[in-house]
Specification:
Blueprint lengths: L13 H6 L18 H11 L5 H11 L11 H18 L1
Helix pairs in contact: 3-4
Length: 94
Amino acid sequence: MSAPEYFFDTDLDVHSWREIAACNNRTDVSFFPMPDDLVAINEAKAVCGTCPVADECLGFALETNQPDGIWGGMTVKERAKIRRKWLEELRRAS
Ligand code: SF4
């Protein structure tokens, strides 16, 4: 798997993309659910699935190694797998 290009393809800065995020003002859904709360995780993922800035969000979380929460529709474990492969690709390319 090659590193997804969207990691660095963020045209919008972090403040801009957060303003148009699908989770903006969504107080009815937790984006930082407990790791074993599959219902809450799936609720957050459903919102992320409609988000116009999911790529920017995921890229930000990967680049900044966010330690918890749902970002770009992915859990910490899901992001860790992608991030590990991305870092391996960076090491091989350097
Ligand atoms: S992908 Fe999900 S967590 Fe990220 S900004 Fe969009 S709705 Fe919010």
